[in-house]
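SAMPLE LOG
Freezer: B-3
Tube label: C17
Construct: single chain, 273 aa
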Amino acid sequence: MIIDTHAHVGHMIGFNMTEADLLYSMDRYGIDFSLVSNIEAAEHDHKGRKVPFFLRKPQNKLLRKTLEIARRNSDKLGVLIWLRIFRETPDEELRNMIAENRELIYGIKLHPFHSLVAPDDEKLEPVYALARDFGLTVVSHTGGNEQARSIHLYNAAKAHPDINFVMVHMDLGTDNSEALNLLGKLPNLYGDTTWVPVKTTVEAIKRCGSEKMLFGTDNPIDGKDTLLHNRTGDRSLYQQYFNELKEMISPEDYENLMYKNAVRVFGIRKETG
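STRUCTURE (predicted):
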């Protein structure tokens, strides 16, 4: 059993991640269930420039689109709501959509790198109220700019102990040391494996226990064979997770990482027997 807690659909800022490619990849590489967010909610590009006006789509429209994809594939896909927190706040329509489709929705996605708003900004309080009211886990990109440093997500998790938070990437593009140091300090703060070296995950398990890390990939960010090779054809990092890691940790720890933690943290209603 493998649950990928960090997958995508959508066409934006140089990426084209289709429903078909995601489903192909899941079938080809043995992923049983994925949590997807829609990259079309990104508000700034990789250089911090605002996405052009003609490409901007309201977060409620994007949620409806993502829900349609998940409903077509409810045995394989669940939804993470990517919020456009630079420009929008949750409104009554969004709240109603969550209530009406709660069985498909598992969490809220923040992207401080593409929104330029840190998770501990007071602007996020309506988001956390929404997460609390519906029992949703909050996942957030970490790494790449000041707003996306893991310390800001830690601050948010500390201020909201009744909500689970996930540090996606464990500070992408760094040695992961800050995220590792924060991981064990709060019971409601978790990490994920998206582009995280296997050695970092092993160290996280050693320090904090295998209950603190979740398997995630960014699939299909490098195309339908993201889980096999990167864009240059080199072997994917995730092949190490599928193969070598099994020899580095116990079977119990491996099962926690690859699916059991996801079931517990997100309340995933996927048959795991």
